[in-house]
Design brief:
It is built from two helices and no strands. It has about 100 residues and is an all-alpha fold. The chain has a domain of about 70 residues. The protein is rod-shaped and about 130 Å long.
């Protein structure tokens, strides 16, 4: 009868060890699965942010070109001539007071 009890205790012990290892495998598998999902989500976020960075860089380059074109000497000079009355050397300006809305 002691042999039978020993075998029963031994079988129960094996069952407990087996259940413990199955539990550990399930826990580790779950943790690995969760980490893989997080990594996939982070990869998508990184991809999206890289795309936004590329778009922002292109926009910055375009804006810098606009600034450069507006602040060039030629651009400033043209604006002053056309809008602020800049007169070039050897340029003659003729005003006709009668032409501008005299109504006669």
């Amino acid at each position: 009868m002691q042999k039978r009890n020993r075998k029963a205790v031994s079988v129960n012990r094996v069952k407990v060890y087996l259940m413990f290892w199955i539990f550990l495998i399930i826990v580790f598998s779950t943790v690995i699965y969760i980490q893989m999902r997080k990594q996939a989500g982070l990869s998508l976020t990184i991809h999206s942010l890289n795309q936004q960075l590329t778009e922002a860089s292109a926009e910055q380059q375009q804006l810098q070109q606009q600034i450069d074109s507006k602040t060039s000497d030629k651009s400033v000079e043209d604006y002053a001539h056309n809008n602020l009355g800049l007169v070039y050397p050897n340029e003659v300006i003729i005003y006709n007071d009668n032409y501008a809305g005299s109504g006669k």
